[in-house]
Design a protein that fits this description.
The chain has ten helices and four strands; from the N terminus they run H-H-E-E-H-H-H-H-H-H-E-E-H-H. By secondary structure, it is mainly α.
Length: 272
């Protein structure tokens, strides 16, 4: 009897262990799939875990905030996919020779030639496709120079100025009812610049009135030089091209008339 109970208890414990393992395996696999999709930038798989009315609350960091719509949540996760492109761009800028050597096999298959032999002569720290005398690029030296310049500038700012930053709300023009309709936009911050440099720009503004059924506000800022120099040249080029197309797209009777008129002009002008 005790053997039977022991076997039954062992079988039940084994069944519970397998059930618990299968129960926890699915969330682990889902989490692994979720993070792999984030790393690869596959937002379709990431968005499967969110309902239509889902809300994402991100705490801390540059993404701190609440994302209430599906498009906002998708845009947040798409930034992680773009991080891979930023990392590849950084590696291509810092170690161009190493990256070029890794893809040289594909270049040779497509074009029949590559840059691996030439880059091996200069080493990984210098990029000289032709020769160091004609064109060369030392990415490590450029990186060290940029980093040293930034550190020196930061030290000078901290040394010469107090470095204290006082953060406060933007000026609301006396309108204390804060809300989406009263918040400052890029249009509001750029308005003083347009006012000061108004003679330098060509502006077309439309202000709504109290009688407009569909009031709207629009500002179009253009360059004077574009209208003074570039547009006349563009219009002249367009007129000439239209004339040439008209001459080329005529009928055979028109071409025969052109030839006859040309022949008459030559007979009248080019006399022996």
């Amino acid at each position: 009897m005790f053997k039977t109970l022991a076997r039954t208890f062992t079988f039940a414990a084994t069944a519970l262990t397998l059930a618990a393992g299968s129960a926890f395996a699915a969330p682990s696999d889902d989490a692994r799939t979720h993070f792999q999709a984030i790393a690869s930038g596959d937002t379709q798989i990431v968005m499967r875990a969110y309902a239509d009315q889902a809300q994402l609350n991100w705490v801390g960091g540059p993404l701190d905030g609440t994302y209430a719509t599906t498009d906002a949540i998708r845009g947040t996760w798409e930034k992680f996919g773009l991080a891979w492109l930023a990392l590849i761009t950084l590696l291509l800028g810092i170690l161009p020779s190493t990256v070029i050597l890794r893809i040289d096999a594909a270049t040779r298959q497509l074009l029949g030639t590559g840059l691996a032999d030439k880059l091996d002569e200069q080493g990984w720290w210098m990029l000289a496709p032709i020769s160091p005398e004609r064109a060369s690029y030392e990415p490590v030296i450029v990186l060290v120079t940029i980093a040293a310049t930034l550190l020196l500038g930061r030290w000078l700012v901290r040394r010469l100025y107090h470095g204290r930053v006082r953060r406060t709300t933007a000026w609301d023009c006396g309108y204390h009812f804060e809300g989406p309709r009263a918040q400052d936009t890029a249009e509001g911050f750029s308005q003083p610049i347009r006012r000061i440099f108004e003679p330098m720009f060509r502006m077309e503004r439309h202000f709504p009135s109290a009688r407009d059924l569909k009031p709207y506000y629009s500002v179009k800022v253009e360059d004077h030089f574009w209208h003074w120099f570039y547009l006349p040249v563009a219009r002249l080029a367009g007129w000439i091209s239209t004339l040439i197309v008209t001459l080329q797209g005529g009928r055979i009777a028109v071409y025969l008339m052109y030839s006859f008129i040309t022949l008459l002009v030559l007979l009248l002008v080019a006399r022996p």
